[in-house]
Amino acid sequence: MPRRVTRAIRAHQPKPLPQREGIDPVALLLPRAGESAEAAAAAQPPRPTETFGAHTVQDYLVNRFYPHDHAAIAARFAAREVKTEDGADVRPDDPLDGQLIWYYRQLGHERAVPFDMPVLYEDDWVIAVDKPHFLPTTPNGSFVVNTALAKLRVREDNPLLIPVHRLDRHTAGVVVFAKTVAARKPFQLLFQNRHIDKTYEAVAPLVPGLTPGHTLEVASRLNKRHGTLQVTQLSPAEAEAAGVQVNALTGVRLVKRLVVPTGAFPATGPANPALPMPAASSEWGHYELSPHTGKTHQLRAHMHLLGAPLAGDVLYPEVLPHADDEPALPLQLLARSLAFEHPVAGEAIRIDSRRELALVKAAEDRCG
């Protein structure tokens, strides 16, 4: 689908501070000095009670967030970068009075990641880009500025951009962003109500008994607990025995068999030695995956359930020791295409990634 460039209408309620590097300022509700816990809990909204020994706004921010870097907070006040909800300056010696303030959080050092995000489709309402491996879709954990959302907001000069769905950091492919506030809900509902056809490509070991062109359906009960890297998974039989229903379903089709050519991959990953690399002459499967549900890590977990964990996966079957990303073998999972009926224009839309998986390319180069 060619790119269609049009002008988006951007009506919104601005925050008291503009975005910086594509990142919104943060709002913080302060405690009220000397207030009882009961009174703070009864307030609407409830206020925090811990003052961290402070009586002024600046001391509170320093004591709570930057006890070893007082200058970082002082500089924000000097630059008039601490605001009330109506945009007035907050003074450093203002007393703690349960007020809501806005300011910029301190950003830490972030690892370098790829930023190439060619536009695949654009109209008045959305823009779809081809996300590379290792780039987070949204701020999360140690990545804030180095994310598709922040970089795209700056590049497109549109602070209203919001993703209507997400891809894992290690997964490449099609990601759609709403360009206006009005566009967010109808496009988010497409994904929430599963009114969209999603197709992924993957490379993994061959599944016994699955021949090229044939499809099998994988079902399980998936749960993601906060603070854990992997999802927990129950087979249909285990779910039935536990009295719960399966909540994840994926169609897995073997497209073709692949043979890794000699010299295509190093014996050991230069950046992540713990990651197993494809051996010369080894056979792999090139799969088309069709998720009928959208659970966290669903495709990775379902391929693991089949005994065929994805090539380049650092989480399944086991969490590998922490190491840098391995450009020699990214996770071999690509969000190849999205197809849907446009919720506003009513036309049929299909958006395809132009990327290739490393193992597929290596095998095809060998055949070519």
Question: Could you please describe the fold and organization of this structure?
Answer:
This protein has 368 residues and is α+β, with helices and mostly antiparallel strands. Helices cover 19% and strands 23% of the residues. It is built from 8 helices and 14 strands. The protein has helices at 37-42, 57-65, 70-78, 148-156, 181-192, 236-242, 298-305, 358-367; strands at 26-29, 82-84, 100-103, 119-122, 126-131, 162-163, 172-178, 197-204, 215-223, 232-234, 248-259, 283-291, 333-341, 348-352. The strands form 2 sheets. Strands 4, 5, 6, 7, 8, 9, 10, 11, 12, 13 and 14 form an 11-stranded mixed β-sheet that branches. The chain has a 3-stranded antiparallel β-sheet with strand order 1-3-2, with no helix packed on it. The radius of gyration is 24 Å and the shape is elongated.
Record keyword descriptors for this entry:
three-stranded antiparallel β-sheet, alpha+beta, disordered N terminus, 368 residues
Element-level helix/strand string: EHHHEEEEHEEHEEEHEEHEEH
Largest sheet: 11 strands, mixed
DSSP strand content: 15-25%
Radius of gyration: 24 Å
**Helical amount among residues, as a percent range?**
10-25%
The chain-level structural class is: alpha+beta
Could you tell me the number of beta strands?
14
Q: How far apart, in Å, are the first and last alpha carbons?
A: 27 Å
Number of helices: 8
Q: What is the average of the pLDDT values?
A: 92
Which word captures the global form? elongated
List the uncertain runs.
1-11
How are the SSEs ordered, and which strands pair?
Layout: E1 26-29, H1 37-42, H2 57-65, H3 70-78, E2 82-84, E3 100-103, E4 119-122, E5 126-131, H4 148-156, E6 162-163, E7 172-178, H5 181-192, E8 197-204, E9 215-223, E10 232-234, H6 236-242, E11 248-259, E12 283-291, H7 298-305, E13 333-341, E14 348-352, H8 358-367
